Fold each of these.
Amino acid sequence: MVDPLVVLFPGLLATGYRETSPRTRDYNCIAWAAGDTLNWWWPTGDPADEPRFWPAGAPREETVSAFLAAFASLGYTPCDDAGVEPGFEKVALFVDARNAPTHAARQLADGRWTSKLGRSEDIEHELHALEGDVYGRVAVVLRRPQPSAAEAPSVSIV
Amino acid sequence: MSANPVQNAPPAETMEQRVQRLLATWRDETAVISSSTALVAHPAYRELIALGRPALPYLFRDLEQTHDGHLSSALAAITGAQPVQPGDGGRIRLVAERWLNWARENGFRW
């Protein structure tokens, strides 16, 4: 049987992946990368509907700068490479051909990455295995000093 | 003998079947999408909205079963109501609960 995730993300075939959670509609990739499993994060949507969660002060627009601002509220700043750096946590932002953000992944301690796939599962994977038609390419990698429990910038949830 | 075209025609899709088909298509084709803009712009989602008020009982039934608060835009568009409190839009299950409460308070049955 063909794995539907491999159909969507052919890069997973070569590098493998591991499901780490059941499907849920409660949070998405941006929330998962930010460490929040209670909210669906996205800056835009239907103007007639109540907006999804987005950090206060970050622009509500589907742009890289808006997403950088959202992660800056958690202490993340852009960095040059996606390798493991002891003492730092990393997030990678994917964009489509229009340079609009589509996805975010968070680095694990062993250098692999964890992603929530929309309303589907969380998976562990190699970073570039999710590049392709659906999520586009990795555009920016962000990092922040690994926070201690007392120092971690908290997600502001209204 | 030629077949009777009326007897051989597939039965017309009921409103319930149509809602279920559109929901399944929408969920299948947006399963890995995080963009709320893309979710509500999907053709199947727009078609659900175009069905109007006759679709509501089936949408509320689905909402009760799935707690899929991503249906809120469709429900707001069809009803003109907005029972979700400001600041609650990110809590998908809570969004669903607010809509179900609103539906019960407004006499919907499903």
Amino acid sequence: MVPQSKHLVYLAVFLLIVIILFPFPAQAQNFSVSPMEIKIDNLSPGGKAQFNLTIRNKEDVNHVFALTTYNPGESERREGRAEFPDDSWISFSSRKVSVEANSEAKTKVTVAIPANQKWAGKDWEIWLRVCPEEREFLVVNYYIRLLVSTGGEVEAGTNVGVVIGILVGILLAACVVYYFYFRRKAKPKHPEAV
Amino acid sequence: MKLGIITILSAIILALISCLPAMAQDSGNITITMSGAMEFSINLTPANWSFGTVSPNTDNKTDLMQFNLTVNPTSNCNVNTFITADDAVCVYDSTYVWTLSSDGNNGERIYVLWFRVEEYPNTYIQITKEQTQFRSLSMTPTESVNFGLKLLTPQPDFGADPGYFSVGDATMQTHVTISAVAA
């Protein structure tokens, strides 16, 4: 019984030495993003589109990631795509995303094109950059391609208020007509004075 | 009375019919297509590296196989890769900075960085603050590349204040960033 336990102790010490002598090389921020590419078609000037980005933290410690935009050079863009005119048209639900160890977090991205006919019928490209806040010597950054094509017509904006206003106006007009025309017509005439 | 109610209802229905196209305009036909929903990642090893003690105006090379970049096997498309670096800042005194050279020449407080990949072991490509292509071709999932770095330290700054090359013990820190985008 005793020799067996001795062997176990020797094995444990041997394994410990191997682990100490051959440490696993650390990776530079092990994380991933998805999707890789987002294509928005027929987004009319005056309209907006929203989508989610997912960041997965594959490490055993929490990390904070910064989200920014980047305008790539012509050679780096897809064929036929022009530079995105104004990166302020792109907003993130949060510019910094904290992702717990071995978990994922989503952030909402909104693309809003101003209501101007000159932005109709365009094909643009911009990249969304995801980079870790804590940086070591080697740093990994990810870019997500965002391809935006605008529609041909300027969107009129939110018309619900106008529609409700018209309906209320028509209802009021109908009430007035009803009151002054039908009610008065139905009213009994005053009895003539005796 | 009945005629009045019918008139009001007719007016509302007419108004609704005329407004329907205006309401429909809000919901448009925007198409959002997302590619690569599975994964998108690269691995860089090792994360940290030290050139050790360096002297002014000298070349310091890492081994060609010192660093490795691998496209994660679960990535479902090819990736284009880029490399950039930052100015080097003294860990103990953030006012003491080595500027990263943009023309390949070093100077007082100007340092130069290059990289080389294992396919072209004799070709060093300069790293600047502007993005440079890391691989000329896109990388496929599971593809791996080893690479090394070369550092040319600044000219001596013995006369400057502070001139850390004269007193030594200044630990300079910089970052080399490798970026990936769907090809």
Amino acid sequence: MEYALIFVIVVALGFDYVNGFHDAANSIATVVSTRVLAPRTAVIWAAFFNFVAFLVFGDHVATTIAKDVVDQDVLSIGVIFAGLVGAIVWDLITFYLGLPTSSSHALVGGMAGAAVAKAGFDVLIGDGLRTIGTFIVLSPLIGLALGLIFTLVIFWVFHRNRNVERLNRGFRHGQLASAAAFSLGHGANDAQKTMGIILALLIATGHAGADATTPLWVVLAAHTAIALGTLTGGWRIVKTMGSRITRLQPVGGVAAESAAAVTLFATSAAGIPVSTTHTITGGIVGVGAARRLSAVRWGVASRVVWAWIFTIPGAFGVSFLSFWLVDVFS
Amino acid sequence: MDRRAAFFLVAAAACIALVPVANEHAWVAWTVASVYVVLALGSWLDARSHRRL
């Protein structure tokens, strides 16, 4: 029992590590592509703010994942393990297919699929899932609107400034702050999802009460895992994000990252798990749309919509099968 | 019609479609929808002024 618990906690932290490894590119791509920081310095910068996020935000998102997705009575080591396997396998499938999937949505779909496999659809908590589903669509749209508004405000404030080179230099340094803010939001929202999984595991195995808050060691372990992921892997996949959706200048980088950071701060404070990838994608599309719609590469942006539609049902299906296999072999 | 304005109106419609399922966060969906309507109006006026130039 104890070994199984430790094993699933390690798998959850591994999921968190991969999340940091994969998503670091979102926060440092523009800083690296505009040569404000060298890749190695940029990942250290992002990892630091990933880690300190626990000092700024509470554990509202963790509580939502642990208590508002499925009925706590149905949670067990098998259900949570199958949910994690579903999320990881779905992430790998979509990575292979080139879909910009969301680990967060995969985790929610995975938990739901494994719980339904064990005890049927009645165990799903409708209110919690409706809120998460609503913000799957709303968070990129909020990021998009804010990205566009921030760009327009910046242009309006600085439109009399004729020294473009000096202005660009200023915004290049401004990106340090916006990238730090986005990394803080990323650490807060994404590390908390793993905290939620581990909290659910502790409650399911009787190591924590039903009303327990997240223990400090879980908070530290989750933030350490995501920061280590960012530190070790982020720079490898940083190349494409800065120019994949629309070509970003420093001013656009500041606007997009600030838009995504504000969205992540607000959703983290409200306890709503959202996709950091989709939020920054919305911000970048907003910056492109401030110029003209044709500045946005809609092929990439539309793949996000496909990821919205398929991620939760996909991870749900894989977790459903995983639980069935876990059940057969145990 | 200006394509950007049309895009913003579709985004506003998507937000309004979420209102019935948004529970206590319905106000967020309404607020974002309102912002997109304002952006659509601004974009349409911008496109119209460019056509006149």
Amino acid sequence: MKPFAYERAAEIGGAIAALAGRPAAAYLAGGTNLVDHMKLGIASPQLLVDVSRVLDARIEELPGGGLRIGAGVRNADLAADMRVRERYPALARALLSGASGQLRNLATTGGNLLQRTRCPYFQDPTTPCNKREPGAGCSALDGHTRQHAILGASQHCVATHPSDMAVAMLAFDAVVRVDGPGGPREIAIADLHRLPGDAPQRDTTLEHGELITHVELPSLQIAARSTYRKVRDRASYAFALVSVAAAVELAGDDTIVDVRIAFGGLAHKPWRATLAEDELRGRRATKAAFRTAAHAELAAAQPLGENAFKIPMASNALVATLRELTMPGAAR
Amino acid sequence: MSNAIATRTLGADVGRRDGPRKVTGAATYAYEHPLTDPAYVVPLLSTVARGRVVGIDAAEARRLPGVLAVLTHEPAPELADTSNPELAILQSPAIHFRGQIVGAVIAESLEIGAHAAALVRIEEQASDHDVVLRVDHPDVFKPDDDGTDTAHGDAEAGLRAAATTVDATYTTPQQHQGAMEPHTSVALWRDDALRLYESTQSVHGVRETIMEVFGLRAEQVEVTAPFVGGGFGSKGEVHANTVLAVIAARAVPGRAVKLALTRHHVFTLGSHRTPTIQRVRLGADASGGLLAITHDVWAHTSRMKAYIDQVAAATRMMYAAPSIATTHRLVPLDVPFPSWMRAPSETPGMYALECAIDELAIALRIDPIELRIRNDPPADPDSGKPWSSRNLVACLRQGAERFGWARRDPAPRRRRDGRWLAGTGVAGSTYPVFHTPGSQAQIEFRDDGRYEVSIGAIDVGTGTWTSLSQIAAEALGVPHERVALQIGDTALPYSHVPGGSAGITSWGATLFGAARAFRDRHGDDPAPGDTVTAGAPDNPAEDAYAMHAFGTHFAEVRVDADTGEVRVPRMLGMFAIGRVVNPRTARSQLIGGMTFGLSMALHEEVVMDAALGAIVTPDLAGYHIATNADVGDIDAAWIDEIDPHVNPMGTKGIGELGIVGAAAAIANAVFHATGTRMRDLPITPDKLLRAHMALGA
């Protein structure tokens, strides 16, 4: 760990000013990811600007029934909020399936969106990694790929995004509000995270110095009938091999009026399954239709040495989740 | 759970004496001993799996304020004995594994040390390396070890004559002990003597090794370890970290140095369980009588040092057969040094054997419990000696009743509950009753009316503080509150390492010997200051009998048919362990071992990157150990067993028995649930899903 300076921001504007023009400065909120990276030697900011006290930590009603979540809201508090649990159950479940109780007490909403991949080669500074050091090469390509991407990867990077929370937010078309040197702006969550392409060092479309201030969940009837299924190696404290956030709205004759599907564990970003959704809208809710939709989404999958299992696992998890949501007697 | 022998404190459900200190944080672990102004040691590690250090530039690090020294192999620190390559650190530029100590920084603070370590530029020249275990490796060799290969009868003929055979190959991955407290040393070199606060399973063992490596006399080395946060074998021997701490202490005499390995370091420097490849062949007649058992084992070792676990040892004595043959072969690789991990031999070996017995039972259409009972040997098949006691059959019968085995339909893949496939499995367990002679204890009657009982024993977190107090009280015939126990220091009478679950057995026998000597000399009404130091008399029964603990594991599993996720809602262990010193700590030990076995079955795997020679699971997020959520209804029980031969208490070691066979019970239950035989541990969702796809399920 290299020496660094630490400043506690008094307000958002000051924090942004502190980072502007200083490429080696970073925001610190919960610290559950960044501090680990500093210890591992894969991040060495010269200045940490602590925004944990100035970030909004409230969850507020938006006109029309949506929610505005302060970036400083802790994962544990967001998961426990009754409005989240009732209107966006997949989000509450996703949050509770992530990390551990101790980590959820500290980790923030903004920080959760910005957590970096758990690729073991990224986390080991003695191995080549294009995400850590562009041009160094990708160790995973010849190595251990069980956790790695099957969708949207590139020859430069096959890492996956580790967040559960972001997968549920993506299914609900959350909007991310940021502030920065160029002023405030909003980003559809689908446009926040990026695919690696030839710049895997960039996880998101945020510019240096931009700070997530809020996440807005739109009013969304369908979200009340949603769930999150996480498939993992042990029952707690493990990253997803595959995860699914899904919501379904049925007409009286079991026709799918609307559907939302997002996958975790498959790509460099949370993966919105638009092909599967398109396949399902207007169809009857049958197991065969669910399977067809899964195939439509996963047809483009390009497995590596050890992660081909993710294709049937994602397909099965999606079919099982949609069946659970559409079974007679399913919640609401 | 009554005991035929009337007891006062032996067998009593006594709460942990050290409990309040531990839960309030007052118990001092190695790193926590208050010492004035300590310095901190940060190791520098190799980043290639084989090769040499060709240059070290530490100039910038040495200039950093707060850096006291940078140690490298130039000049090599002086060691008196370099015969153990694991401990002969910094003696040459050679690199034998990735993560080897190639230097160290000593600094005023941990932060300065870490910063300085990042400033040291180490140039390495890599050679071709190999970290992959395979049976056809060109360097495979037969270790020079007594009893590596054994053969009774003609196994090949037995297999040819058999009506039914099983021939299956099982693999277990490299595993990691994962003690909660990392390996830690606090060392102070002053006035030509060493004071060491160490996280160890044996204070006297550390003293002996450090004396040898550094050429010191016993009185120059003091080792203290009152509390240890787990070892599971990884702290049974001295590893390179302790040698580095002592080298560092000698580099800054008069100043204490602290070296706590990080979790990453522990995976390479703290030792590991070797991966194994095991071929088991069984032949039986039509009624299930075993005619032949063969068990062939391949494991890896460091290219620098042959380490062997006698993985097939239990196969030689578990079941009766006219022919039993075992072999062990090692493949030398460019890997960190392996060592002991909880039941080093029996854990992987009994996984394979007990799965193979299950496969044979299915092939024969005989209940697996009945098959085991049919082949229960009247005497030890290996030595021919009578058993001091053997109650595997009683464990099978009583466990089956308690678990509800009689209702079981043996057909696989028949029970479905929604998305879950359900099944149950059974496996046997055994562990030898070891006794390590040579320990001494001192008993002194104090003026406060208590007996001060001193022995250089260790509590690695298992409850030794409590159980030894109970044994001493029993031996002296007083309530346990009147025993003031002293353990965990080389200033106390000599004690051997409590390996092989021999701690309570050996120390307890020593306390009984010392108590008898005390009463013989000072009677039942001693005067304050009356003291005796003595050990245990020889146990003539040791050579006359084969001594083992036995047990059975029952497991219920549920497998998600969509994803291959395995859950274990229920586990029951039924054990035959002689007399139980303390049912509370005994139960903790047994269910802890069973949880270890569950974790082995489903989760644990050190994954090595073949190209880099690197561990890619070097932390507890990557190396999965079972969490609370993975453990369902778990229970351990024991039968009434009186063994008059093992030792004065009638106890058998239980620290390792609980893990042996547990993984097999789960793997057998997974077969019963899914119809898929998983022979390669751990049984992870991807493997089950692949197997199911292959079955067309």
